[in-house]
Amino acid sequence: DFSRTPEMLAAFEERLGVDYPFDKYGHALFQNFGGAMEHQTCTSYGAGLITGDNRYDRVVAHELGHQWFGNLVSPAEWEEIWLNEGFATWTEFLWTEHVDPSFLPTLLAGRESSYINHEAAVGAYPLYAPPRSRLFGSTIYQKGGWVVAMLRNLIGDEAFFTGLRAYLNGN
To answer: Whole-model pTM?
Structure first.
């Protein structure tokens, strides 16, 4: 399930234009953990995500994306958490674009649906300064990833990736 991590690292370095920011990267597994959580240079995964068939590669990509978006650059306050999670969700899109570009529209449509259904269930709330109880809701992840994807589409790859490199390099 982690066999594609070196390919992900190379793809992200190439596309982001910024080298992996640390000297190592690892994975840790936990029996009684229901998801995944990045830590600088290591990600923790619940054992249920380990299936032997790479079905959770986008989770691996998301958590690896946090090495740039969350660990290299971090928001100054919790109100900006969408920058971490939205960009990490966007790295799932970037990975999908790399390995199966024909599936990207389907993935985007699914994430859009997830966000719309979430908002219908709990009510709308903003990306910036969400209610504390919604810091890690679908709006932050799915809408955040969509906002990044829309920005890229709106301004074009050259301007988007130039700005992204400046953001990651602290310029």
So the answer is: 0.94
